[in-house]
Amino acid sequence: MSKVIKLLHGLWLLVRKPYLINLILKDEQELEAAFLKRFAQIKLQQIDVFEWPEAQHLEVKPYSFLSGSSLVTDFALLQLVCRKYQVQTYFEIGTWRGESAANVAPYVQNVYTLNLSATQLQQLGASDAYIAAHRTFSKKITNIQHLEGDSANFDLSPYLASCDCIFIDGDHSYEAVKRDTQRMLSLRRDEQSILIWHDAKSDTEYPRFEVLRGIYEGLPAHMHQHVYLVKHTLCAIYLPGGHTSQAQALHETPNKSFSLTLKQEVFQA
Ligand SMILES: C[S@@+](CC[C@H](N)C(=O)[O-])C[C@H]1O[C@@H](n2cnc3c(N)ncnc32)[C@H](O)[C@@H]1O
């Protein structure tokens, strides 16, 4: 098919199915172009938290190995940050199966995890099975408090200026990441508080520019210099202070390997 015929075919499809425009606007190249247009001066940096001494021993638990779960290394990152920076209060947007909350709970005093309620999820058309899986791993852990609501308008006043680490893992659209980032700033205990975003990469090497644009637009410019992609994970982190980092790169030759031992624990749902 020639390019002209493809163009006419594409236009005809758009007239018949206007929602297809989202496929173009969400195309990764379009999203990267939008990010670079807005933040031409930013050079993405990556940090390797697995070089920290605390990373010598890591036990990621629980881990479901089910669809849509975070990576083992994402939960390891949360654990590492909580241990290294002696996080007391951890707040997250996005509970789902409760895996991230359950992974940090042994290392902090208080975990607050916010998620849309079952009713809100139903109204959005979520299946009963998806809704039922929420909190599976976190509901019985005593230092985890489950909060229900939409991060867009949830009343944050009880948690203001009290959190050492905030994990943003709810709605990953640009608009929601920007809004959640802006709202979470008020929860920071102080200037040293840490922010972590999930899905800032589409795999461990490729940046996800829709999420990155939300992060950088949500943060005031003076905080941009402390934002890093986290090597071997899908996360980005706001980590104040000086840290060894390197330019984000694709197709790296590995300089380390991990070894995993798998153990199972079967429980009644
Ligand atoms: C990717 S999952 C979270 C996974 C979890 N952090 C983990 O790693 O185990 C995202 C969750 O965010 C919730 N969510 C999406 N939009 C939200 C919003 N606006 N407010 C609160 N929760 C939201 C969804 O219901 C879903 O359970």
Question: What does this 3D model show about the protein?
Answer:
The chain is an alpha/beta fold. It has a single domain (42-247), classed as 3-Layer(aba) Sandwich (Rossmann fold). It is 30% helix and 13% strand. A nine-stranded mixed sheet has the order 4-3-2-5-6-8-7-1-9, sandwiched between helices. Helix 3 runs parallel beside helix 9 (209-218) and helix 8 runs parallel beside helix 9 (209-218). It binds S-adenosylmethionine (SAM). Residues 70, 92-97, 99-100, 114-116, 121, 150-152, 169-171 line the site of S-adenosylmethionine.
Distance between the termini: 53 Å
CATH architecture: 3-Layer(aba) Sandwich
Instruction: State mean pLDDT (0 to 100 scale).
Output: 94
Shape: globular
Number of strands: 9
Low-confidence stretches: none
| Overall helicity | 25-40%
Largest sheet: 9 strands, mixed
Based on CA atoms alone, the radius of gyration comes out at 20 Å
Query: What is the total domain count?
Result: 1
Order of helix and strand elements from N to C terminus: HHHEHEHEHHEEHEHEEE
CATH topology, anyone? Rossmann fold
Top CATH class: Alpha Beta
Q: What is the name of the CATH superfamily?
A: Vaccinia Virus protein VP39
Strand order of the largest sheet: 4-3-2-5-6-8-7-1-9
